[in-house]
Amino acid sequence: MWLPACARIGDPPGGPQDKRPPALVATYPESTAVLPGFKDNVEFQFDETVSEGNSPNFGLGTGELEKLVLLSPTKRVPVVRWHRSRITVRPREGWLPNRVYRVELLPGVVDLRQNRTKTGTTLTFSTGAPLPTRTIKGRVVDWSTNRGAPQALVEAVIEADSLVYRTRADSAGFFSFGPLPLGPLLVYGVLDANHNNRRDNREPFDTLRLVSGQDSVGEVWAFRHDSTGPRIQTIAMNDSVSISLTFTMSLNPYQRLPKDSVRVRVLPDSTDQPVVAILPKEAYDSVFAPPTAGRDSLRADSARGVRDTLRRPRPFVAPPGRRRGLPPVDTISMKPLTSRPQLYDRLLIRMGAALVLGRNYRVEVKGLQNANQVAGTAALGFKVPERKPPPDSTKAKADSGKGKGRARPDTTARRPPPPPPPPPGP
């Protein structure tokens, strides 16, 4: 009797383990080719079978292979197919005449042994239009961290016909994008959170305009664009004369509000309280920081000097990028940038009078702008917490003996001496 069985293809036992990623051996058509009437698929041929991935390609941009293909110019997700050792690509609407197409295969193609490619390739060809030679360069920065945005999505929109070309930045946010047609461009830098290679709503982005002949984009600072003004999320008492406000979105770091834009009232009679200033935390600390005692600082410095003289020198350890013969790590490109101030969502209000414990207040801020410079009025009420009085340390503690109110015996009192022995008899 025959029994059903399944077979799994794998390496023969005893051989060396294959850790080499799949290699690209051919592409079709040739790059920089002019092909009027082109109707075929673009193909990427590898030297071994590659993995289709766990997520299938349904035309939504969420498939494993769909995330690795950038086809421009098109507004729809391309048709990406897996054919064992080949990956084919074509636009969903078909190849249009007199267009320059750019197909980029990103790093990340995996073989059956989970070896992943670390480099990609780009194929550019035309269906009748002349091939361009323009290349733009720049960097996408995440304004929330003031650092380069790794793998950020870059879009170049041709103003003449609104065609959109796409690419990805490197691990530090830098990009070199081309060839692109001549003429004015709108360059978008997008933090693609869902990795679908599209600029979606609520994703942080920013844009710059390049005129014809300008190829240097510079820095594109991506941030969340909100169409409404900021609102107060929480209010807390910072100290007896200051209030901390936390907002629902990042604020315009270049704006400094005057003190008359803030109104603080005591409820329920709505009596206005004097306001001295409203500032970000760093500016507030620099203006209203408490003075430090000179004696304490000198004592700390002298103690620090003694500790430093007793500290043993640590052995030199090479950074990770310099071990095992690797090139040194580019730490300069990973440092926070200072060409723009840091975004923040918190402001401190300095009061002219002390806050009253247990009272209710209402704070109103007018003309406050978010990072997109959309202004609005934010208002919210809060209550200053009541502090409980400390326990009375002079109050006698309860007796731990049996029975309530029973006095504890005095163990320190001296016991009376025993009575003398009786005199001896006759």
Task: Summarize the SSE layout with pairings.
Elements: E1 24-28, E2 33-34, E3 42-46, E4 69-72, E5 79-83, E6 86-90, E7 100-105, E8 121-126, E9 134-142, E10 147-148, E11 153-158, E12 164-168, E13 174-180, E14 185-190, E15 205-210, E16 216-222, E17 232-239, E18 242-247, E19 262-267, E20 271-273, E21 275-279, H1 281-288, H2 294-310, E22 346-351, E23 360-369, E24 375-383
Q: Widest sheet: strand order?
A: 1-3-6-5
Q: Would you state the CATH class of the largest domain?
A: Mainly Beta
Tally the helices: 2
Q: Characterize the largest beta sheet: strand count, sense, and whether it forms a barrel.
A: 4 strands, antiparallel
- What is the residue-averaged pLDDT? 84
Using the 3D structure, state the CATH architecture of the largest domain. Sandwich
CATH topology of the largest domain: Immunoglobulin-like
Could you walk me through the main structural features you see in this protein, from its secondary elements to its overall organization?
The chain is mainly beta. It folds into 3 domains: 111 residues, Immunoglobulin-like; 94 residues, Immunoglobulin-like; 109 residues, Immunoglobulin-like (Sandwich). It is built from 2 helices and 24 strands. The strands form 6 sheets. It has a 4-stranded antiparallel sheet with strand order 1-3-6-5, with no helix packed on it. A hairpin with a 2-residue loop joins β17 and β18. It starts with 23 loop residues before the first strand and ends in a 43-residue tail after the last strand. The N terminus is likely disordered.
